[in-house]
Amino acid sequence: QVQLVESGGGLVQAGGSLRLSCAASGRTSSVNVMGWFRQAPGKEREYVGAVGWTIGKTYYSDSVKGRFAISRDRTNNIMYLQMNSLKAEDTAVYYCAARRDNPLISSLPLPSIYDYWGQGTRVTVSS
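^ thats the sequence. predicted structure below, dont judge the formating
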């Protein structure tokens, strides 16, 4: 089992920045990919991006590309989401997720491929 705990959410003004963290514990050696998703009120869970845990290659949705950056600290088993130039439409609960096996790159945006999820951290961007 892998446990994931997000932190770093809060209230920020439009145009501002925020960094989220996702701390992984348990059988972290089994993790191959970690991802970030978000869910706004009344909407489906949306893919933000992902990172290959070993090599560190990152992938992003078009809606955040150029504004958000994912990084990871393998020593401490933490994944980060640096969010810049935040917009009101970025307001959501942000979740991190982890997958044991290497997935097809094309499947990274699918929540169903991830084996573990955190409880989420809320981000509110005021306009």
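The first strand starts at residue 2 and ends at 7.
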